[in-house]
Prior knowledge:
The chain is mostly helical. It contains 15 helices and no strands.
Amino acid sequence: xxxxxxxxxxxxxxxxxxxxxxxxxxxxxxxxxxxxxxxxxxxxxxxxxxxxxxxxxxxxxxxxxxxxxxxxxxxxxxxxxxxxxxxxxxxxxxxxxxxxxxxxxxxxxxxxxxxxxxxxxxxxxxxxxxxxxxxxxxxxxxxxxxxxxxxxxxxxxxxxxxxxxxxxxxxxxxxxxxxxxxxxxxxxxxxxxxxxxxxxxxxxxxxxxxxxxxxxxxxxxxxxxxxxxxxxxxxxxxxxxxxxxxxxxxxxxxxxxxxxxxxxxxxxxxxxxxxxxxxxxxxxxxxxxxxxx
Length: 293
């Protein structure tokens, strides 16, 4: 390693580790909340006749119709219990993250398993959205966040290569998010509703054009992250921080009703929690980048 490269190597401090732990805690807690109380896209797999009919008929000797109508065994109940089981696992991961230490070797495997489970969840959403590639890779930051924590906690160094990898992960998430905002894929109707509720737009067309502009900014920011001019990349990072946090909060703000205070929190706060990494990981990157030589 040359002298110039050594200057780019830094260790992580306690504040950076705390920020990562908090973000990964929120990620797992939010997904755990979803698994325990709300729906996971498990039926998109277990009700896929094209994929599973042969397996079901071979293993049971019965028809697919009897399988989906719970005559073989209660498929709905199995799916619900599997969702709760995943919720409990993610809740365990969440609270383990708060206390995990470098001396706990099992912690690295737990974080890797948690990351793997989130990648399977991303795949289920990918399948549920008719194999839209952007849907899968939009979850990049969520899937990789536990691995970033593992790297930092278990002796990793704050190197230029490490920061470059994080930039790639952030860029992937924002490009894929931008594909929906820009209307390369159909703009989600709920996004339009959020824009109208949060920004008080009067017409759908205004919300549509606003999202298109934000999609373009997502693409631009993803490119500028890699510009080797510090102030330029810093502007891109701060865009990702602010927009990532705002899009997370929009899930709650756009669906919050004071007269249904607790119901609004229960139905939408978990969506905010697991998406905070979209703005939080760029914040971690900015913090790490301040130490560049």
